[in-house]
Design a protein that fits this description.
- Helix content is 13%, strand content 40%.
- It has 333 residues and is mainly β.
- It folds into 2 domains: 73 residues, GMP Synthetase, Chain A, domain 3 (2-Layer Sandwich); 207 residues, Thrombin, subunit H (Beta Barrel).
- It has a 7-stranded antiparallel sheet with strand order 8-7-11-12-14-10-9. Strands 17-18-19-22-21-20 form a 6-stranded antiparallel barrel. It has a two-stranded parallel sheet with strand order 6-15.
- β3 and β4 form a beta hairpin.
- The longest helix is centred in the N-terminal third of the chain and has 16 residues.
- About 2% of the residues have low confidence.
Length: 333
């Protein structure tokens, strides 16, 4: 009897944190099991790992079980997942798919135009337009991005209007009340000769849905409501398993891919020892590289599916566009 998609999606939230705690696991999601290098029709919980290691070098607790509550698992060597921000041409008007960035950022990609309260805005990532929470509303946005030769003020195209803050993971920090209680209990334990000691800690749970921001063009004719090599986008669609998608980005241009996993929970590196946990993501194959962050991901029939923001040499991680539009309260023009 085959595995039911609803059953896999129901189980994943119950086990994803435990799976993510295992060494090298950087993401969990729902996808099809790979056997001998080929995709099968068997649904499974997919654990993406930085490096796939043989079981003989892992302890029993570190090994991902072959099945969880009867649901198959699979291990996918995605490599480290990191934000795409890497350092071309100046466009006026600028369409989606071209180089853009906050004046302190190297370069990312202009995703597409969106609308809010009757005004047009540029949509891209927080880490592209808002410098990973470090920017201020009103800061200038350059097109092309600084790495691609953009300079202030000659290449100013917009001002930062709004961004959804990224909640970064923190190391466990002790709580003062817990410290006092544990100290007292440890003192009593010492009096009775016990060697057991309590170590207080506070685990910060910080989950993200989106890495997104909007910027208002300085002049309406500075931007164009289309995506380079793709054209116009007038509708949105839900990203589904096995969906064929495409994107236009500043680094790799027009590329195509397939959504290999849904309901993905992924830990993303932002450099400088900063990581952030994202939930309800889409994962496609390696259809992007550094600098493609912010690209609009669309279906074969040009419906907007998501906002590309991270990936590895073999994987692309995408915010669901429904979550982006809800967070920013925007629509398509």
């Amino acid at each position: 009897m085959g595995t039911n998609l609803d059953d896999v999606r129901k189980l994943l939230p119950e086990v994803r944190r435990e799976l993510l705690s295992k060494p090298n696991v950087v993401a969990t999601g729902v996808g099809y099991k790979i056997s001998q290098g080929k995709r099968t029709d068997q649904l499974a919980i997919i654990c993406s790992v930085d490096t796939k290691k043989p079981q003989r070098v892992l302890s029993r607790t570190e090994i991902i079980p072959a099945r969880i509550q009867g649901i198959p698992t699979d291990v996918y060597p995605s490599g480290l997942i990191h934000v795409f921000q890497d350092p071309t041409k100046r466009y006026r008007p600028a369409p989606g798919g071209v180089s853009i960035g906050h004046e302190m950022v190297t370069a990312g990609t202009l995703g597409c135009l969106v609308k809010k309260n009757g005004k047009l805005y540029i949509l891209s990532n927080n880490h592209v337009l808002a410098n990973s929470n470090e920017a201020q509303v009103g800061d200038y946005i350059l097109q092309p991005g600084r790495y691609d030769g953009g300079t202030f003020p000659a290449d100013n195209i917009a001002r930062l209007s709004e961004f959804i803050p990224i909640k970064f993971e923190q190391e466990d920090t002790p709580c003062s009340i817990a410290s006092a209680i544990s100290g007292a209990l440890n003192f009593l334990a010492a009096l009775v000769g016990s060697r057991t000691r309590l170590q207080p800690s506070r685990v910060e749970t910080a989950e993200n849905l989106v890495d997104c921001a909007i910027a208002e063009p300085l002049e309406p004719d500075f931007v164009k409501n289309e995506i380079l090599h793709i054209g116009t986008v007038s509708k949105i669609a839900e990203g589904t398993l096995d969906m064929k998608v495409k994107k236009s980005g500043r680094t790799t241009g027009l590329t195509t891919g397939t959504i290999l996993q849904i309901d993905v929970t992924v830990r993303v590196s932002y450099g400088d020892n900063k990581t952030a946990l994202f939930v309800d993501q889409l994962m496609a194959d390696g259809m992007s590289q550094g600098g493609d962050s912010g690209s609009a991901v669309v279906s074969e029939d040009n419906k907007l599916v998501g906002l590309l923001f991270a990936g590895s040499s073999t994987s692309t991680v995408i915010n669901r566009i429904q979550n982006v539009f809800q967070a920013l309260q925007v629509t398509l023009p």
